[in-house]
């Protein structure tokens, strides 16, 4: 005998309540005994969302008749393929050559390596993950080797440890860690930070931090009124979303001094085409680089496989 729709519904409700209870219980146990959340939960890979793809993403949906399932499949395909295709198109029209190199190949002298190691010690001292997780010190050491000449640095993403904020570091994170490391390394520089979480903003010797919503260009306008008009280095270690990143790039192109750098951290391998497209569209007086960092596994020239914490960096220097 088949159960009625009513009994199915009641059973589903009971299952949902039980699942919610079990999930909450597991979270309490993990918190009580110091056990971290599974990585799939920490990085937001679990869960589902019910959306009408055609109406939610009209920019990518085909303007045609047909079954919803077919149109939804085409919409997903367009979302995933449009940027790589635009990247290929832009590269075909551009005379810029863009190499993807291992970040460990960026230092070219013993001085570069010396400064990279010194910066690593400072990152580690203050609890930043830039060196011990991602070996980003191999980029920043050489970039900042003329450190007595560096006057100002802005890092977007102070680093919140409040887990109710998207792109948080977890409860063990140290807000402001990299800002303090840069301050100690750059003895003549003013250090600026910006973050969407106002609870972790602070001010101390040669460090000032401000509110910023990277998804809102008007928020960048407000930030721009509070920091210098020219900066030696702008780092995006904030939301790690392409639209937010590109807002940072648009802001940075107006403020990077000649010889200065614009850096976007924590780029996933499947987002590389976004940055190939950005590189092709940069003004002629910028030289772009893409560097692979800890977590990347190179299979063969130009292709990568995704490891647990795969990251890349986009870096562009202004020459004139």
What does this structure look like?
The protein is α/β, with parallel strands linked by helices. It folds into two domains: 28-93, no CATH class; 96-318, Vaccinia Virus protein VP39 (Rossmann fold, 3-Layer(aba) Sandwich). It has ten helices and eleven strands. It is globular.
Number of DSSP-assigned strands: 11
Poorly predicted segments? 1-5, 11-33, 296-309
CATH names the topology of the largest domain as Rossmann fold
Give the H and E element order: HHHHEHHEHEEEHEHEHEEEE
Structural class: alpha/beta
Using only C-alpha atoms, the radius of gyration works out to 23 Å
Second CATH tier, the architecture of the largest domain: 3-Layer(aba) Sandwich
Task: Estimate what percentage of residues fall within beta strands.
Answer: 15-25%
CATH superfamily of the largest domain: Vaccinia Virus protein VP39
Number of domains: 2
| Sheet with most strands | 9 strands, mixed
Mean pLDDT across every amino acid position: 85
Number of helices: 10
Kindly state the percentage of residues in helix.
Answer: 25-40%
Distance between the termini: 80 Å
Instruction: List the strand order in the largest sheet.
Output: 1-8-11-7-6-2-3-5-4
Q: So what's the CATH class of the largest domain? A: Alpha Beta
Q: Rough shape?
A: globular
């Amino acid at each position: 005998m088949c159960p009625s729709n009513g009994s199915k519904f009641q059973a589903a409700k009971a299952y949902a309540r039980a699942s919610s209870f079990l999930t909450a219980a597991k979270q309490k146990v993990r918190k009580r005994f110091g056990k971290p959340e599974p990585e799939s939960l920490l990085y937001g890979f679990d869960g589902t969302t019910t959306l009408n793809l055609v109406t939610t993403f009209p920019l990518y949906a085909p303007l045609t008749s047909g079954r919803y399932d077919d149109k939804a499949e085409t919409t997903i395909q367009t979302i995933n393929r449009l940027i790589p295709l635009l990247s290929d198109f832009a590269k075909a029209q551009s005379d810029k050559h863009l190499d993807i190199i291992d970040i460990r190949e960026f230092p070219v002298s013993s001085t570069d390596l010396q400064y990279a190691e010194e910066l690593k010690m400072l990152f580690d001292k203050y609890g930043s993950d830039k060196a011990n997780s991602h070996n980003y010190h191999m980029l920043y050491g050489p970039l900042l080797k003329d450190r007595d000449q560096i006057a100002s640095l802005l890092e977007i993403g102070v680093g919140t440890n409040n887990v109710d904020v998207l792109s948080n570091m977890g409860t063990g994170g140290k807000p402001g860690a990299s800002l303090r490391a840069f301050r100690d390394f750059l003895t003549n520089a003013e250090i600026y930070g910006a973050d969407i979480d106002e609870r972790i903003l602070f001010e101390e010797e040669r460090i000032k931090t401000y509110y910023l919503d990277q998804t809102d260009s008007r928020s960048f306008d407000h930030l721009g009124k509070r920091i210098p008009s020219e900066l030696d280095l702008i780092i995006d270690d904030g939301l790690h979303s392409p639209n937010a990143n590109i807002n940072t790039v648009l802001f940075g192109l107006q403020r990077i001094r000649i010889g200065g750098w614009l850096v976007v951290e924590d780029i996933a391998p499947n987002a590389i085409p976004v940055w190939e497209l950005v590189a092709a569209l940069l003004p002629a007086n910028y030289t772009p680089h893409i560097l692979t960092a800890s977590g990347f596994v190179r299979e063969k020239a130009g292709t990568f496989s995704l490891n647990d914490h795969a990251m890349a960096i986009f870096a562009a220097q202004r020459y004139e």
